[in-house]
Structure formats: structure tokens, C-alpha cells
Design a protein that fits this description.
heterotrimer, A alpha+beta (532), B mainly alpha (335), C mainly alpha (299), A: 532 residues, alpha+beta, Dipeptide-binding Protein, domain 1, Dipeptide-binding Protein, domain 3, four-stranded mixed beta sheet, 19 helices, 30% helix, C: 299 residues, mainly alpha, 2 strands, 73% helix, elongated, ABC transmembrane type-1 domain-containing protein (chain B), membrane (chain B), MetI-like_sf (chain B), transmembrane (chain B)
Chain lengths: 532, 335, 299
């Protein structure tokens, strides 16, 4: 056998992958290895795609392709008049998966719900730190310890959550990945066998797919759960082929080694779109990239100065060169797919001449500033360094000298939070639950200016009152009005230059049907079918 | 003889201690706070930060941490990854077979081609064969292999579609209780096509990784051979009318192999460095890529444990080469 | 080796030595070609501002990823442009400066530190020798690129730190070579004579012994020069070396990776530039070794 014929034989074997004896297999070229299979200790979408989405369910769930909620493991719920008690009626007859060494003896019930939350809240729960470095950053990050007062089991099929004060986004929070429901029976068995850490290696959930095997940094295998409460998935096997390089993912898709892939390199979109075996779906991402000025630092404490700089930066050029067209210019701090997005707002026009004049009028000359560019690629920002270079060139044209600074990612996050920070910082945000509060309060409230996650350290009373009021109101029409007004205040004060909302692309084989893109950036394969 | 071996092994102990200090010390002065990275853009409150720092033990005096590190290392415990929350030793040895398989293949390739080419080039010194092969060897030796890998991917996977782009075997083959050595698993499973699939995935990374060792071995073999061919006893054997093939086969080759074996041993450390780049380019799920990822994720314990294990492995291989050398070449023992 | 080195010492003036060296060096055709190419690279680096058609940092936003030989309103892009519309040829020419700079700095750093450590270890022996050489052993126990990687991660990514890291992992080779040479020279008659004549340790080490250990050091220095360029490029490629927009070749390659299938030129040319310069230096290195190392001269 010559080398050449051997290689061809290998290629032929690859082509056979899609065949197989009647079993339908979908191969997803995923972008990275999951950190583990227990979603609660993690915060990255990659990990959720491999754990909470195929394997687990939540009490309430996001309706496919939207940020609206629908019943999940809870069939229905009641909210008290004062907005303080949430009572969930659980779905009967839901079965947990069986894995090697564990077969569930009972159906899903209230104990599982209590366990799934208690282990994140209660230091005495044996699973609070089942490995020395485990911690629940999402649960804490979403302020759950402050929001939730207590969780009680009313009966086997009813659970009651009591809150400390009314909180409109709370229900959406329960649809998030950290709120996935694990099997208490399985956890107890692992604890009895003294292998608690396996809860992170071999997940047992109620979701549409059962975990089969994981080869580290290479392949994850799942099979369809025949007892799934919404019905068995159309495909029989789901495989994640872990492929960190976007160019390689694309080649694999074109070669038929996988049928669907996330995060193509913007540079390759043209080639993908012109491939006759591939279709590319796209959707605006639920995110924003911004340049936050330090509003506590002169001369950036003046709104005119900030506005002038915004007008000097050519955002379209950034979309072209950095996003390679895979994005849109942002004018508001929330993305256009989110409810309450105020489309009446007009962006400050790109006008270097006017900007120059505004600066002069404000009495600013020979301005020298720092632009912070983060060292990593994020879903909302493909290349911060390149963005900063473009900004630097633009600002030079109005006589502002910009220096680009960067730090290692952890340092960057920390130093950018310091109110004495020198310069404007490029950063962004990806929505967690589709609620505007998750952008406006987290990134721009006075409380956030205090804690530092408001990187502009901008505290405006009008704005803050509006969003605080909205968070306590349950009526969505009412909330929408309040958020729309808040965006007007934001634009007028310009604490940020809103740079872009990235567009998310999902190339897939034309044989794939039923894939619905999630505005939250989830990759969900329940309901997807593949034509043989 | 035994004293020579024991002496060699004892000599390594201070180096080993040095290695633990380096692995621990370097990594503990890495800037950047792993606790902050765990939270990302979301951030965490100062209280929560202090609590986590304490939970992970980063707030204790550095020498206490080193003492604990050493104590745990002596018990075979290298700590737990901050990212996956799994034991480092487990992570390392899950990925190690992939690197070992790639490394062995590259080494076999390098020796199988490098030695004969070197021998031939020496015998036909000055011929066009000598010039072309030694010229290519120098090019190989000067090659930025990360670029070379990209070029091969463009050509063989992108344009010609002869080889798969990345991965270790086609996804249709699955060995639930595999050893991690794909070729072995493929043969053991008896599935049709599994072996050729594994080989076709292995070939490009092996070529890339073999490039520099191949060049070094070919050059070294040639010059060792030339030296031996010039020795008196070879000339004598020739003068006595021994057929050239026997002269080269029996006398020259065997003596020329002594420095070549040392060279091959020294290439093991080089291979590990090459594996970092090769694995990154081909998304090969091995130790090299894992180290790069761990460094960029600030996974302290993983970098620590990885550095330590890699250094120990390189040291053990060098020790074996040393001992072999002592066996082949008795002179060295009495130095 | 030792006898020949010894006969070298009294042999005439520097000029004669150089003439002899040049005689052997120019025998080696490869070495001469290497030297010529190297000189060209040096010229490119020195005259980069004159030779390059564009400012290496100027962005032509209407000519993103233009193919080689493209004409535009701004001028002719001989080797095309990169993702933000910068002329590749100009960046490569400026990149030559960085590569040479890296090579020189790393060699000077590692050579001087390594030679001093080696001299001390070899000359004084005893515990000084033990400690120095043990530390060198520890450094050499790690694969060099891996150690450099961790070093740069500690110091923070950047060109300066990358150079320091590479110099650090390279200097043990110089230290070992120097030590070995010192040990073989230390007890020779001419050293004894100088010692009897009352020369101090410093003078003996640096003025008497060191000049006679130069040949292997020069060969090692050329090797290190090319290795430094390769390693710095590798670090740049892994995102830890020179930071963009610096037109360092490895960094350019790493930035270009995402365009591998769409714009071959942004990937091909920086790599080719690295290969050619490293090859030229290695060719020279071979020639130097043959000319300076009398043992191999025979073969």
C-alpha cells in the first residue's frame, strides 16, 4: 500500500461517517474543550453547550430561538401579588438518565430542585466544594444570595421560592445554566462511593441527550434520550469534535467531517457562503462592545469631550477591518434584538472636523490619552488590539495622541476596575438572560460604578432612578418605557463610545434542518435533523 | 558498573530539587490573579475574592505553599486544575499518550530516514546526493516549523484533500476502553479502516515534528561516519582487501553509531519543544497544546505540574541515553 | 583538538590569522552564499526607511488584503497587504530590523552572562563550579521553548521580555562550552607562565585564557543567533512575543493565521523571510565552524 493510497483510504473512511446503519449522527465541530460537565461552577458558553444544554433541564426554559420563557421541569408557576413568592408546580414522570454504575430508582421531584440550589448557596452542603477549587461564580455573579431568601419544598411536586424584594428578571435567571437541575439521588450515590468529583465528569440529567463519553480535548459523544419529556430527538447520536482553530473547523465542515460549526472566522465567510453544500445562518448577537471613558478623570468628566471623541472615531471602519463585516455599528448600550431597544435614538455622526471644533470649544488641546485594548478575543470583539490601532489612527487626525496599553487578561479586568485608571478601556458584555436589566444595571448603574463593573465609573441620578424603578416593576410595557428613557439619558451623556454588536454566524451542511439560532448564543441540538 | 549507574542516578537528585523549585517558583510569581479569571467580565466582590483566595490557599506564605507542594509531590499529588477541577496527574496522563505517539512516530521517521541518508552522504562524499541531502538538511534545520506546518496543511488538506485537517482518527471509530495510543487501539479493535484512518491523521504532524531532528540526525550521522571512515583501522581493513560493504557495515557503522545515539537522545528535549508548536497547529490533543492553553488560562497548578513532569521525563530519557552510552562505550565509565 | 589549538596560538599576527580563516571560509560555497544573503538582510534592515514603498504602519482601508502585485490609488503593493491594509513588503523590510536586533541582543546577553559564569565555574572549581553548573543543569532539564514560554508569561508578553527569556534559556550552552574550554586550557604552560609572572585571577581569566577559547564560542554564537530568531518568531506566533502592530515576522504570521485559506500571501511571505534569514546564518555558521575548528577541517 503506497502512502497515497493509504491516505485516500483514510479519506474514504471519513466520508463514510455520515452513513452508518440507520443511526442518524450529527457532528458539531465545537470551538473548545468544556471545562467540565457540571454547569454550575463555570461561566463559559462552551461548557454550557456541552453540559446544561444537551444533558440538563431547568425549571423554566427559553423558548427556542427567543428570550421568552416557557415551562421546563416546572409545568406551571404562580407569582404572589407582592412579587415576593414564586411557587413552581413540577412536571411529573420525568426520568433521569442512566449511566455506568447508576440507574435512577425514582422520577424527578422537589428534592432534586432543592439540592441543585442548596449546594450553591449553603456552605454545609457536601457538594458546596466537592473539589477544593470549585466555586459557584455565576450564582454569586447573578446576585442570587441577595435576591433569594429561602427555597422550600411544599410537597414532592411543589417548590416555593421566597425573595427579599421584588425582582423582575428573577424568572429569567432561573432559565440560566447555573440553575440546571441535577439528580440528588445520583449525587448521594457518588458521595457514598466517595467519588463526588465524578458529578463533573459523568453528568446525569433529564435533558434530550445522554452523555456517553469524553476524550479529553478531542471528542464528546452523546446519544438521544428516548424518554425525554418533549419526545426523543430526531437524531440518534450527537458528537462534538473539538476543533479550536476556526480555519480548521471550516475545512472540516467542507470536507464533511462535521455538519455544523460555530464561530467561523469572518475572513472565511465569503468562501463558506459560496460553497454549494453549505448554508450560513446569521443573527445579531446579544452583546455589545464599547469603549468606556473614565468619567472621573479630566477632561473625560465633560460630556462634550466624550462626545467629540466619539465623533472622531470611524466605527464603520472598525466593522469593516476588525469584524470583517460580521457586526453592526452600535448606538445604544443594549443590542437591537433585545426588547426595549430604543430605535429612535440617533447616533453621533462620524465627523472629524466638528469633533476638532468641539474639543477646541471645550478648551482641550494637545490631548494625550490611553486606550486599553484587551489581550483576548471575545464573542463581542474579535480583535481589540486592531480596534485600538484604528482608533489611534482616527484620533491622531483630530490632534489627539492615543497610546495603546494592554495587560494580561486577569490584570486587565482588575486594573480597568480601578477608578484612578488612566484612559479609556475597550470591553464588552454578552447577555445572560435577555433582560435589559442584565446590561443596564450591571454595566451602568451607580452601584456598578462603585463595584467597578461600570468601567466608566459613570453615576447619573436620572439614569439610575429609571433603571431601579424598572427592575422592581413586573409589567413589561411599563418597563420598556423606562428603559427607553434611560437610553436617551445614556446617549446624551455618552459615558461610552458604543462600538459594535457582533453578528453570530452558524455555517452548516445543507443536509441539516431544524437548527434554530439562539439570541443568547446557546448551541442547542434538540429538534435538529439530518438528511441521510 | 553498578557504581557508575548509582552514581549517575544520585547525581540527579539536586537537579530534581532544583526543578521543583523552578516549577513552583516560576509559576507562583506569574502575574495575574487566577481568581479574577474565574469570574471574567462579570467580576466579583472584594469579600468573595478574599474568600476564594483563601479557599484556594493563595493567601498563605510562599514557603509554606512550597513545602506543601513538595510534600504533595512526594506523594504523587500535583494538585488540581483550576479550570477543570480535576487532578493534574490525571489530566497529564490522559493526554500524554497522544504526545508520546506523535513523538515516537516523528522519531522513527527521523531515524529511519536520517541515518541511512547520513551514511550514504558520507560514503558518497561530495557527490550530488551528498550536496542535495545536506543542503535540504540545512533547510530543515533552519525551518520555522510552525510555518512549515501551516504550509503542509494548506497543500495536503486544503488543496489536495489527501489528509484530514486535524484530530487523531475519524469520528466513526470509537474505542471505549482505549489506551490512548490510537494506532494500538485501532489495531486492537480490529475495525476495518481504523488503522489507515489513524495513520492518515498522524502523518502530517509527524512530518512537521520530525523535520528538525531528521536534519540534525542526518548531519550528525554524516560527520560521525566521515570521521570513522578516516580512522586507521578502517583504512587497514580496506587495505587488506575487505569488501567495502563489509567495511562500512561492520566497522564503520557500528562505531559511528555511538555519537549518533547520543544525538538521538538529546533530540527528546527538542521534540518536546517542537510538540508545543506542532500540537498547537494541528489541534493535537497532547501535552504541548495543554501546556500552552494552561499558561494562557493562568491555570497555576497545571503549569506547575506540567513543567515538573516534562522535566522529569526529559531527565529520565537523558539518563537512559547516558547509561546506554556507558554500556556501549566502556571508556566513558573510567573518566 | 588540543594540540592543534596550541599550535594556533603563536601563529603570527591577527591579520595572518584572519587571512587563514578567510581562506578556509571562502572555500565553502554555501558559507559565501549565506554571507551574501545575510549582508542583503542587513542592508534591508538598515535601509528599510529608504527601500520600503510605504510606511509599515499606514493603513489603506480601501485595500484590505490586496493580493501581491496589486495596483492601487496609493501605489503598487508588491507583496500585497494585510488585514488592515498595510503593505506587506514594507512590513517585512522593517521586520528584518527586529529579527537582527533580536539576534544581536540575545547573543550578546546570553554570551556575556554564559561566558562569565563558565569562566568562574571553570577557573575556580569547587563549590562555585558545583553551584553554577547545577543551576545550568536545572535550566537545561526543561525544553527551552517551554521554559521561555513560562518566562514570558511571568514577565508579560512583549519583545523585550521574549528576548530576555530566550537569552536566559540559551546561556547555559555558553557557560558549559566556556567551562570545558577553560578546564582544558587552565593547566597549560602558557597559563602557568603568566601566573608565575604574577598575573591576577581577573587578568588570567579574561586576557589569557578566554581568547584561546574563542573558536567554539563563535560557532555557538552563530548557532544561537539563528535559534534566537526562530524562538522569538515562535513566541510571537504563540502570541507571547512582540505585540502587534510591531512588524516582527513571527507576530505577523500569528496575526495572519486566520487568513490562511483566503490570503496565502500574508502567511507565506513572513515565514519565507524567517526561513531565508535563518538559513543564511546557518550556512555562515557551517562555514565558520569549518574554518575555525581545525579538527573538522581535515574531514
Amino acid at each position: 500500500m503506497t502512502i497515497r493510497s493509504m491516505l485516500l483510504a483514510g479519506a474514504a473512511a471519513v466520508l463514510m461517517t455520515a452513513g452508518g446503519a440507520g443511526a442518524k449522527t450529527l457532528v458539531y465541530c465545537s470551538e473548545a474543550s468544556p471545562e467540565g460537565f457540571d454547569p454550575a461552577p463555570y461561566t463559559s458558553g462552551t461548557t454550557f453547550d456541552a453540559s446544561s444544554r444537551p444533558v440538563y433541564d431547568q425549571l423554566v426554559e427559553f423558548k427556542k430561538g427567543t428570550t421568552e420563557l416557557e415551562p421546563g421541569l416546572a409545568e406551571s408557576w404562580d407569582i404572589s401579588e407582592d412579587g415576593l413568592t414564586y411557587t413552581f408546580h413540577l412536571r411529573p414522570g420525568v426520568k433521569f438518565h442512566s449511566v455506568d454504575g447508576f440507574t435512577p430508582s425514582r422520577d424527578f421531584n422537589a428534592d432534586d430542585v432543592l439540592f441543585s440550589f442548596d449546594r450553591q448557596a449553603n456552605k454545609d452542603n457536601p457538594y458546596y466544594a466537592y473539589a477544593p477549587s470549585v466555586s459557584y461564580e455565576y450564582y454569586n455573579g447573578m446576585d442570587m444570595p441577595k435576591i433569594v431568601k429561602s427555597i422550600e419544598k411544599v410537597d414532592d411536586m411543589t417548590v416555593k421560592f421566597t425573595l427579599n424584594e421584588p425582582n423582575a428578571p428573577f424568572l429569567s435567571d432561573l432559565a440560566m445554566d447555573f440553575a440546571s437541575i441535577l439528580s440528588k439521588e445520583y449525587a448521594d450515590k457518588l458521595a457514598a462511593d466517595d467519588r463526588k468529583a465524578d458529578i463533573n465528569n459523568v453528568p446525569v440529567g433529564t435533558g434530550p441527550f445522554e452523555f456517553v463519553a469524553y476524550q479529553k480535548d478531542a471528542v464528546i459523544r452523546y446519544k438521544a434520550n428516548p424518554d425525554y419529556f418533549k419526545g426523543k430527538a430526531p437524531i440518534d447520536d450527537l458528537i462534538f469534535a473539538i476543533t479550536p482553530d476556526p480555519a480548521v473547523r471550516m475545512q472540516k465542515l467542507q470536507a464533511g467531517e462535521c455538519q455544523i460549526m460555530p464561530y467561523p472566522s469572518p475572513a472565511d465567510l465569503q468562501a463558506l457562503k459560496s460553497d454549494e453544500n453549505i448554508k450560513v445562518e446569521e443573527q445579531p448577537g446579544l452583546n455589545v462592545a464599547y469603549l468606556a471613558y473614565n468619567t472621573k478623570q479630566a477632561p473625560f468628566d465633560k460630556a462634550e469631550v466624550r462626545k467629540a471623541l466619539n465623533m472622531a472615531i470611524n466605527k464603520q471602519a472598525i466593522i469593516d477591518a476588525v469584524f470583517q463585516g460580521a457586526g453592526q455599528v452600535a448606538k445604544n448600550p443594549i443590542p437591537p434584538t433585545m426588547w426595549s431597544y430604543n430605535n429612535d435614538i440617533k447616533d453621533d455622526a462620524f465627523d472629524p472636523e466638528a469633533a476638532k471644533k468641539m474639543l477646541a470649544d471645550a478648551g482641550v488641546k494637545d490631548l494625550e490619552m490611553n486606550i486599553w485594548a484587551m489581550p483576548v478575543q471575545r464573542p463581542y470583539m474579535p480583535n481589540a488590539r486592531r480596534t485600538a490601532e484604528l482608533m489611534q489612527a482616527d484620533l491622531a487626525k483630530i490632534g489627539v495622541k492615543a497610546n495603546i496599553v494592554s495587560y494580561e487578561w486577569g490584570e486587565y479586568l482588575k486594573k480597568s476596575k480601578d477608578p484612578t485608571r488612566d484612559g479609556a478601556v475597550i470591553l464588552g458584555w454578552t447577555g445572560d438572560n435577555g433582560d435589559p436589566d442584565n446590561f443596564l444595571a450591571v454595566l451602568l448603574s451607580c452601584a456598578a460604578a462603585e463595584s467597578g463593573s461600570n468601567r466608566a465609573f459613570w453615576c447619573n441620578k436620572d439614569f439610575d432612578d429609571l433603571i431601579t424603578k424598572a427592575a422592581k416593576t413586573t409589567d413589561q410595557a411599563e418597563r420598556t418605557k423606562l428603559y427607553e428613557q434611560a437610553q436617551v439619558v445614556f446617549k446624551d451623556q455618552a459615558p461610552w463610545d458604543t462600538i459594535a454588536h457582533s453578528t453570530v454566524f452558524m455555517p452548516m451542511s445543507k443536509k441539516v434542518s431544524g437548527y434554530v439560532m439562539s439570541p443568547l448564543g446557546h448551541h442547542d441540538f434538540y429538534g435538529v435533523d439530518i438528511q441521510e | 558498573m553498578i557504581r557508575f549507574f548509582i552514581g549517575k542516578i544520585l547525581w540527579l537528585i539536586p537537579t530534581l530539587i532544583g526543578i521543583t523549585i523552578v516549577a513552583f517558583g516560576f509559576v507562583r510569581v506569574l502575574p495575574g490573579d487566577p481568581v479574577l479569571l474565574m469570574a471574567g467580565e462579570r467580576g466579583l466582590s472584594p469579600e468573595r475574592h478574599a474568600e476564594l483566595t483563601h479557599q484556594l490557599g493563595f493567601d498563605r506564605p510562599i514557603w509554606v505553599q512550597y513545602g506543601e507542594f513538595l510534600w504533595r509531590v512526594l506523594h504523587g499529588d500535583l494538585g488540581e486544575s483550576l479550570v477543570t477541577h480535576k487532578p493534574i496527574i490525571h489530566e497529564f496522563f490522559t493526554l500524554f499518550p497522544a504526545t508520546l505517539e506523535l513523538g515516537l512516530c516523528a522519531m522513527i521517521l527521523a531515524v529511519a530516514i536520517g541515518v541511512p541518508v547520513g551514511v550514504l552522504a558520507a560514503i558518497k562524499r561530495g557527490s550530488w546526493f551528498d550536496q542535495v541531502t545536506m543542503g535540504s538538511a540545512l533547510v530543515g534545520y533552519s525551518m520555522p516549523i510552525f510555518w512549515w506546518g501551516l504550509l503542509l496543511i494548506i497543500l495536503f488538506s486544503g488543496v489536495l484533500h489527501w489528509t484530514p485537517v486535524s484530530g487523531r482518527i475519524s469520528l466513526m471509530y470509537y474505542f471505549p476502553n482505549g489506551t490512548g495510543f490510537m494506532i494500538w487501539d485501532a489495531i486492537a479493535s480490529g475495525q476495518k479502516g481504523a488503522l489507515s484512518s489513524a495513520l492518515s491523521h498522524l502523518i502530517l504532524p509527524s512530518i512537521v515534528l520530525a523535520t528538525i531532528p531528521l536534519a540534525v540526525i542526518a548531519r550528525q550521522t554524516r560527520s560521525a561516519m566521515l570521521e570513522v571512515l578516516g580512522e586507521d583501522y578502517v583504512r587497514t581493513a580496506r587495505a587488506k582487501g575487505m569488501p567495502p560493504r563489509r567495511v562500512i557495515g561492520i566497522h564503520a557503522l557500528r562505531n559511528a553509531m555511538i555519537p549518533v545515539i547520543t544525538t538521538i537522545g538529546l533530540q527528546v528535549g527538542m521534540l518536546m519543544a517542537g510538540a508545543i508548536l506542532t500540537e498547537t497547529i494541528f489541534s493535537w490533543p497532547g501535552i504541548g497544546k495543554w501546556m500552552v492553553d494552561s499558561i494562557s488560562r493562568r491555570d497555576y497548578p497545571a503549569v506547575q505540574g506540567g513543567l515538573l513532569l516534562i522535566a522529569v521525563i526529559v531527565m529520565v530519557v537523558n539518563l537512559i541515553v547516558d547509561l546506554l552510552y556507558g554500556l556501549i562505550n566502556p571508556r566513558i565509565r573510567h573518566r | 583538538m588540543s594540540e592543534v589549538t596550541e599550535t594556533n596560538i603563536p601563529s603570527g599576527t591577527r591579520r595572518e590569522q584572519f587571512a587563514e580563516f578567510w581562506f578556509y571560509f571562502k572555500e565553502n560555497r554555501g558559507a559565501v552564499i549565506g554571507l551574501a544573503v545575510f549582508v542583503l538582510v542587513v542592508i534591508a534592515a538598515v535601509l528599510a526607511p529608504v527601500l520600503s514603498p510605504f510606511d509599515p504602519d499606514a493603513q489603506y482601508r480601501d485595500a484590505l488584503l490586496a493580493a501581491p502585485m496589486t495596483d492601487s490609488a496609493h501605489g503598487h503593493f508588491w507583496l500585497g497587504t494585510d488585514a488592515v491594509g498595510r503593505d506587506l513588503l514594507s512590513r517585512l523590510l522593517y521586520g528584518a530590523r527586529y529579527s537582527l536586533f533580536i539576534g544581536v541582543v540575545v547573543v550578546v546577553l546570553s554570551l556575556s552572562v554564559g561566558v562569565i559564569l563558565g569562566l568562574l565555574a571553570g577557573w575556580f572549581g569547587g563549590w562555585v563550579d558545583t553551584i553554577i553548573m547545577r543551576v545550568m543543569d536545572v535550566i537545561l532539564a526543561f525544553p527551552s521553548l517551554l521554559l521561555a514560554l513560562v518566562f514570558v508569561a511571568i514577565l508579560g508578553p512583549g519583545l523585550t521580555n521574549a528576548m530576555i527569556a530566550i537569552a536566559l534559556v540559551m546561556q547555559p550552552h555558553f557557560a558549559r562550552l566556556t567551562r570545558a574550554a577553560v578546564l582544558s586550557e587552565k593547566n597549560k604552560d602558557y597559563v602557568m607562565a603568566a601566573r608565575v609572572a604574577g598575573a591576577g585571577n581577573m587578568r588570567l581569566m579574561f586576557r589569557t585564557v578566554l581568547p584561546n577559547c574563542l573558536a567554539p564560542l563563535i560557532v555557538q554564537a552563530t548557532l544561537s543567533f539563528s535559534n534566537a530568531i526562530l524562538d522569538a518568531a515562535a513566541l510571537g506566533f504563540l502570541g507571547l512575543g512582540a505585540q502587534p502592530p510591531t512588524p516582527e515576522w513571527g507576530t505577523m504570521l500569528s496575526e495572519a493565521r486566520e487568513f490562511i485559506l483566503r490570503a496565502w500571501w500574508v502567511v507565506t511571505f513572513p515565514g519565507l523571510a524567517i526561513l531565508i534569514s535563518v538559513l543564511a546564518i546557518n550556512l555562515m555558521g557551517d562555514g565558520l565552524r569549518d574554518a575555525l575548528d581545525p579538527k573538522l577541517k581535515r574531514s
